[in-house]
Amino acid sequence: MVIGAILLTGASLTASVLVLQVAVLPLLFKYNKSVHRKIVFSNCINYPKNLDFERPSSCNVLGCRNYKIDFHSAVDKCAVELGVWHIIPCSLFRELFVVHDNLTLEKRLHNELKRTHSTVILYCHGNSNHRASPHRLQLYKVFQEMNFHVITFDYRGYGDSTRVRPTENGVVEDALHVYTWLMECVKDNERRSIVIWGHSLGSSIAANLVSHLDKLCSERGVACLPPPRALVLEAPFNNLLEEIERHPFSKFVSWLPYYKDSFVKPFSSEYTFATDQYLSSVTDIPVLMLHSKGDKIVPYELAVKLYERIKCSRKEDGATVEFHVFDKGHNDICEAPDLPRVLTNFLKLIKEDAVNNINMKNR
Questions:
Q1: For 113-162, what is each residue's pLDDT tens digit?
Q2: Which residues are catalytic?
Q3: CA distance linking residue 84 with residue 153, whole number of Å
Q4: What crossing angle do the helices spanning 339-362 and 134-145 adopt, rounded to 10°?
Q5: What span, in angstroms and rounded, lies between the C-alpha atoms of 255 and 22?
């Protein structure tokens, strides 16, 4: 009797799982846009919780000031406020404790950003959590030790930014306004020190921004902004549809005969995130790709496809494209001991290329 009851219970559970996989999940994925949005923008995942973003030191970030960027969204037709952190290089820590004038700490750090000769990283984070996630804090420390300034922010719907439903156009608009603010902060002759860094979904957001920069500025009736010095893509994918198809969750349903029609294609109606298409039209911006063969979220093969697509789109005189592979996972490339060396060599290379190009034009 006991064995029969156990077998009957097991059979019932198996049947329930099969019904869920075969009938319920396909309908849920195919017609529920809320499910699509939560997979693409996992802003419901919020760890650590209950942080005071206005006091970065309480979030375990040293040498940081909080900032707000306000604008009227052309995408959502509403006011949007973005939470932004400016994290200073370790070399400026002394400025935090030595008072030279009557300026506030925030004003002094802002002045340091305006006159900096150091690299400035504009960081676009991935699809979950916020700018104070532990692995992001660890990456900021790497940047600080390399004496970079870091500008990191939360998209709408994330962190302490306005709670508006994020969309692809919306988060790209957010990145545009932060980039505009940063360009206004930095002197004209130092604007080429800005590097846009995107992680995972943020890599596609960054690629979208740089490829449509002129168009985005024109649509808003503002002067066109100069491009960044370089683009760094950490754990990037080539396009969203292939990423959805290769995502670990898809293994539960990929055996279904109608898998692509029910689970993959529905995403194409609202989301693009076609990093390969974006960067195929941008051939004059150096690109550094960082990926791990052990990445379980974004398969290494998708990064290879992206790299090959970018390389094919650039002629011999096109800007540098480099691809470095690490023995890490999706969120821990920041722990790789040779990451600073890779970044230093890449920045040195593109600086030399820029000098050579100037010399060629002056001949």
A1: 888 889 999 999 999 999 999 999 999 999 999 999 999 999 999 999 99
A2: 200, 295, 330
A3: 4
A4: 50
A5: 10
